[in-house]
Fold:
Amino acid sequence: MPRPYALLAACLAFASAPTPSAASAAPPVHLPPSGWSQEKQAVHVLNRLAYGPSPASLAEVQAMGVQAWIWAQLHPDTLEDAAVLAKLSNFRSLQMTTAERLSAYQPEAKLAKERGVDLTDPEARAKLLEEMPLGAMPRQMGLELVAAKLIRATESRRQLQEVLLDFWFNHFNVAAQKGAVRWMLASYEREALRPHLFGSFRALLGAVAHHPAMLFYLDNWMSTRDGLDLAALRRSNVPVPKKLAEGGKLGLNENYARELLELHTLGVDGGYTQADVREVARCFTGWGIDRPRQVGTFAFHPLAHDGGEKQVLGTTVPAGGGMDDGERVLDLLAASPATAHFLARKLAQKFVADAPPPALVERLARTYLDTHGDLSSVYLALFASPEFWSEQAFDGKTKTPLEFAVSAVRALGGSTYGDAPLVKAVDAMGEPLYRAQPPTGWPEVATPWVNAGALVTRINFALALTAGRISGTQVVLPSEAAGSSPGAQVDSLALRVLHTPLSETTRATLLRAVGQGENDAMPDGERRPLDSAKVAGLLLGSPEFQKQ
Structure:
């Protein structure tokens, strides 16, 4: 869809969106007394349950009331989002199946082999690339996936859904750099994660366990029972799954089993042993992929499965269970108190504090167990907790590069098409999207993101954004109060961008940076006009804006 038509769709969507009064009829969320003003409450929930306040979202929360807004965010299907969907309609790879992407975006090496091109010959390689349509190159999938993420984070009305998608993708991280995973990522988000964000953890865990992106990333598609003889199978004319032929080396692979226990469920201190890791790996033998580079869907291979009895965390998994062995393990792990505690701490760390209060973690874990892992119930208990609404929680978290970049655009009422300059800016700040190599994903705590070099990169991005140098992303600069002093104008702009007064140190530093310090008057006593674009950029780069 051409951009002018996408803009028209956005206008129509806005006109048809539910009014705040209609949304406020939703069942209220009961919040503890905080003594905060209505604006402070709104800013807090938008900083934590959304990618920061925008002028429109702040007005919406204040009109609806915080309780009704939270309830609506917990039920994203009730929120009309046609404007964002109109933008995303430009990205054809997002709705393809993995098989369709494998066909439409063929790797350079495969095309070279088919055409007899020697890729070590620079001229031959250049000619091959010239013959490939730009939109059919594999990198197009990644460009569209990242652009869609930035568009949704910046403009979607379903803000909590996007925040949670980022959280759970990190929790169940897969990396685009690993082989066939890049062809599977869009389906992974669309099928394994997004439908289960507000349902049961067991359903989410199972969807991830079955998805080829996870099976490929953590090598489970190549895990077979010990003693399987591929040559013997072939000699006896037994049909050999394509997965075994592509996988090469046979034998048990423990990678997925280990991360399932350590990162996805129980946690590193969850009480499992190395023997449990091996037994879990045995349970998941045969969980594989139908031709990863042609079809890319889940397939169970009975020949590769270890059909013997297993012992997992003191529980017997009887022999002969087949694919159900893995399902029994997932049931066991999802119901474990260790899993409840591990997930409760991660959610409290994400939404409340890097070092979350133990009492809050215990209450959330109890909610998880009492509701059999219902995630929406856990979220509601978290967002209605006194700890979430405490002074210690307010502005107590540091923004990740993604959160910083998107919140900067939102703070100035901006919009984006997720074009290369914004993508490169997030990369430069240290968080290339979908490319966290370790299974742990990107960190949710402040320490990795807080250093002098990172702050300089953030300031440079903010100044480029307000100067209009991030093409494909637009912002609306706030106007300064006419006739007031430079200091008063800065104070006014700060309240509109940061929703809080600047500290004296930041204020003095900013005024000097724009030539409005105490000693910056010109010889005739006049002062230079205030550069509102530069002031806005410096406000976005200020220590105050790094917090959420």
Observations:
- Residues 398-548 form one domain.
- The mean pLDDT is 89.
- The CA atoms of residues 242 and 291 lie 6 Å apart.
